[in-house]
Structures are given as structure tokens and as C-alpha cells.
Amino acid sequence: MPEPLPLSVVIAVYNGETRLSATIECLRRQTFLDYELIVIDDGSTDHTWDYLSGLEIPRFRAHRNIANRGQTAALNQGLALAQGRYVARHDDEDISDPKRLEKQVAFLDGHPEVALVGTQVVWIDASGELVWQFEYPTEHQAIRERLKEKNSFAHGSVMIRREALDQVGGYREAFRLAQDYDLWLRLAEQHQVANLPETLYKMRFSAQMASVARNAEQAAYAQLARQLAVERAESGEEKTSLEAAGEEIAARYTQMSALARRAEQSRNFVNWAERLLWWGEPAARYAWTMWSYALLAWPFDLRVWKFAAREARRRFQGGQGQTDHADAGKSGD
Predict the structure, then answer these.
(1) Domains recognised in the chain with CATH numbers
(2) Looking at the predicted structure, is the pLDDT value of residue 213 above 90?
(3) Sign of CA dihedral 225, 228, 230, 236
(4) pTM higher than 0.90 for the full model?
(5) H or E segment to which residue 9 belongs
(6) What are the angstrom distances between the C-alpha of 312 and each of 296, 308, 322?
(7) The pairing of beta strand 60-65 with beta strand 35-42
């Protein structure tokens, strides 16, 4: 019986025609090339499938969904096709350092007790300028503690042992968002996890990221993931019905009226404008751009104008303002 492939790289993409090529190119430049590449086109309505159909890459497989099923379902499709001993995630448009795969494979080979390894991550804008540097804990215990409050891995940066993924059941499709956070919580309960200290992954920051444009919805799913983790820790099983809770969150957001949805997006954008200012430079330079999205989405939110008035006052008093930056336009899920 032939040896299994060392690695599968799994990407799920929706309408990625203009951004997928940079990701494919960075994977072609990897120093570790003994992998298969699996891309799920999740019902794209642009020319994503035409681009994928024209690729000539060794051990490349692409699957096309006729209708959009959402990122969670698409990722599970990719996992079902993957034959590697390890599975690496990658998001479309993001960029991996040429040595990322090599270093993660070497780490998992040398640490058989570890089931999941991520990397340090930076956010960049459309032109590649730094937005923010994230610093994730590297040791298992520190990661577990931080996971109780927030995600401690960048989804696209991780590499996972396939046997561990199978053991915990992969992504749970009741999570339309924060599906990765739920998976990391479950993996960390049964296995060691780690982050490499090197920055090996660059994420494109934009107002269309799910964590920005759908921030409140993502936060609701993240809270559900934490609640279920607490129940498992306290009683050994989940007391809350995942399906019912997931459906309730989905209904809350899918059944919004068009006006309510615009108001929700405006709140998400102004919350992010506040966060970017609080982080400081260089992230603060993007706060006004984020505020402009809030204004366009729903100009009747008082917080939008309070933000503008406060920042105008601060500038008048001699504070350092922000300069506008072009947005990358990354699609949410």
C-alpha cells in the first residue's frame, strides 16, 4: 500500500477571481512542495472556476459547488477529499511565507504530541502595507487559557494532523462563522496545540472581511463555542443543543430586514473604527476608512456622528489624524 501524502492544502473560495492568483503563486513558491492542493469553489458567480480550470499544478484538484453552501460546508468538502497526513488551511488572497509549510511540517514531525500548529500573523492592506502585527501565544497551556476568551489562531495559517481532525469530527456546520474557533477549542481539549514564533502568514485586511462586516454575527457564534466548551469542561458533555442554538443565531441574522441589516453593518464598522484607533499606529490610519463604511451603510446611527465629532475635535486640538487607505475588498463568508 503506498505511503499517504505528507500534506494536503485546502482552500475554500467564493468569487475569488481577482484575488486567488496571489495565493496560488505563494503556494507555488513554497520550499516544501510534497503536497496536494484542493480548492473548493463554493458557487462563485464570477470567473473563479474558469481560473481554476486553467491551472496546471501537480496534484491539484478543484471541486465546484453549483450553489453557495457557505465556508464551513465547503471546508468539510475539502477535508473529505484530502489524503494528506497533515492538512494545512489557506484563505484566498492571503500570502504565506515561502518556508511556512516546510517549518510547520518539520514542527509536527518533531512534536508528535502536537495536533495543531499555527504561526504569527500580520494584517496587510491592498498594497501590502502593514496594518497590524498579531502576537499569539506559542505554548499549549497559554493557548488553552487564551482560547477561553478569544481565538488564538489565524484560520488560514494552521496545519493539523488528519487523525486528530477525524477524532473530533472536523468543522461543525451549525457554525456559519467562528467554525474554526469551535474546532480549536475541541482540539485543544484532547491534544496539544502550538503556534510557531515566526510570522509566516499575511492576511488581507478589508471592510468586507467576515470578522469586520459580520462582526456581531461572528461574535454570537464565538460565544456559543465558548458556552459549549464550558459545558464540556464542567459536565463532560454539551447540554445546549448545538443545532437549535445555531439555527437561532442564523435566523436572527438571515431574517433581518434590509434596513436592519444596514444598521447592523454600520454598528460593526464603527466598532472597528474604534478598535483600530485603540490599537494605535499603524492600524489607526485605517479608522476613518472604516468610519466611511459605517456612514455609507447607515448614516442615522448616532455613534457614527459621535465618532466623527470626537475625532474632529481631537484633530483640531493637535492630535494625530489618520490617512485614508484603499480597501482590499475581501469577501466575507
Answers:
(1) 7-207 (3.90.550.10), 262-324 (no CATH)
(2) yes
(3) negative
(4) yes
(5) strand 7-13
(6) 19, 6, 11
(7) parallel
